[in-house]
């Protein structure tokens, strides 16, 4: 039977806590990392009915999307909603873990799960994750006598070359032979004028921010022993588009707005609130943008996109009214809980498969059957 820390390691690998927004509260809320885990339940909201369902089933771990403690509290007495939820879990010995904005952006995360549930193809992030602040990259290649290779590598690193993510001093070296003949007027470091020389050399390669090109080349030339060093600088092509990021954009077989809205209603779990649509029912829909959860912060980006419709939750009256005046994509507002629920079967299957492939350790999994959408009926 795996430990809680082993289950957390898998979830953290798929949905790294470091990728959560700065205001978020993700990770282990309650539980002993050394405790054994045989049953894991997944839900959107950490509310009392969900805690009671987890306790009745005998869950050792409840994984939720929304944080129980997003804002600071001074206590959790059982006379409060949060306190009752936590008291129910602690009495049942059930740990609690949150994966929120770190699960929103990830491959296999909330928005991607929602997109696949709606039948979207050719997915890419609506707002790609930042690729870092280095900007465009170059690659420098220089040939240097083996005895002086360390000095050149050190100079390149000191000038800022070879920085990749959380690493510095990154380079690649390969041995070879350098051949040259110094001509009249040369002042060779090795050999003599008129003589053909063969020298054991090292090819040193490293990447660098393009903004550092002049600085890095100057640093290399300052320590290189040759009068005329052989080197080249190549501009690297941009990296492939990020697979992670906020929201998703994809395509569906051409349909009408009404037809696509009906597909959305069929794909999402039923709620009393249903879905709302802003746009011409007969409008052609092929390109779809979406964001799991509250996505009105992306309206400006969607307006500049080629999407025919944007699907998200918690849209407000005035932003929607102004958006419609821009003659942009149609809008479909879906219940927040229903949109994010689509992730639960995905992460449940992922965990079950991971432990099944590991062999030996088995974990029972369950997606909560409790509807936690706050709206209970409509008149």
Automatic annotation (TrEMBL):
Keywords: Metal-binding. InterPro entries: DUF34/NIF3, DUF34/NIF3_bac, DUF34/NIF3_sf, N-reg_PII/ATP_PRibTrfase_C. It holds the Pfam family DUF34_NIF3. Coiled coil: none annotated. SUPFAM superfamilies: NIF3 (NGG1p interacting factor 3)-like (SSF102705). Gene3D superfamilies: 3.30.70.120, NIF3 (NGG1p interacting factor 3)-like. The keyword Transport does not apply. Homohexamer. PANTHER family: GTP CYCLOHYDROLASE 1 TYPE 2 HOMOLOG (PTHR13799:SF14), NGG1 INTERACTING FACTOR 3 (PTHR13799). Belongs to the GTP cyclohydrolase I type 2/NIF3 family. This is GTP cyclohydrolase 1 type 2 homolog.
């Amino acid at each position: 039977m795996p430990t809680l820390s082993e289950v957390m390691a898998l979830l953290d690998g798929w949905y790294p806590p470091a990728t959560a927004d700065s205001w978020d509260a993700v990770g282990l809320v309650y539980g002993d990392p050394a405790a054994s885990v045989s049953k894991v339940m997944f839900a959107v909201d950490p509310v009392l009915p969900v805690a009671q369902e987890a306790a009745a089933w005998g869950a050792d771990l409840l994984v939720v999307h929304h944080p129980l403690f997003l804002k600071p509290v001074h206590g959790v007495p059982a006379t409060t909603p949060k306190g009752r939820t936590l008291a129910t879990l602690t009495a049942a010995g059930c740990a609690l873990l949150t994966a929120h904005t770190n699960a929103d952006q990830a491959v296999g995360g909330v928005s991607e799960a929602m997109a696949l549930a709606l039948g979207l193809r050719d997915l890419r992030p609506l707002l790609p994750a930042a690729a870092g602040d280095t900007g465009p990259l170059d690659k420098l290649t220089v040939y240097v006598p083996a005895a002086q290779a360390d000095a050149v590598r050190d100079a390149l690193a000191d000038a800022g070359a070879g920085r990749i993510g959380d690493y510095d001093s990154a380079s690649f070296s390969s041995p070879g032979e350098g051949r040259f003949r110094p001509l009249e007027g040369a002042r060779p470091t090795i050999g003599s004028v008129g003589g053909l020389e063969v020298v054991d050399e090292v090819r040193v390669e490293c990447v660098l921010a393009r903004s550092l090109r002049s600085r890095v080349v100057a640093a290399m030339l300052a320590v290189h022993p040759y009068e005329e060093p052989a080197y080249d600088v190549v501009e690297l092509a941009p990296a492939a588009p990020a697979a992670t990021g906020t929201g998703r954009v994809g395509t569906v077989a051409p349909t009408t707005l009404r037809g696509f809205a009906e597909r959305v209603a069929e794909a999402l779990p039923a709620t009393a609130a249903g879905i709302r649509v802003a746009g011409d029912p007969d409008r052609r829909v092929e390109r779809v943008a979406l964001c799991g959860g509250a996505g009105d912060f992306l309206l400006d980006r969607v307006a500049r996109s080629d999407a025919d419709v944007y699907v998200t939750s918690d849209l407000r009256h005035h932003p929607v009214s102004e958006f419609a005046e821009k003659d942009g994509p149609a809008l479909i507002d879906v219940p927040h809980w229903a949109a994010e629920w689509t992730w639960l079967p995905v992460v449940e299957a992922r965990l079950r498969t991971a432990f099944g492939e590991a062999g030996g350790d088995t974990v029972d999994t369950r997606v909560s059957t409790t509807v936690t959408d706050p709206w209970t009926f409509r008149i």
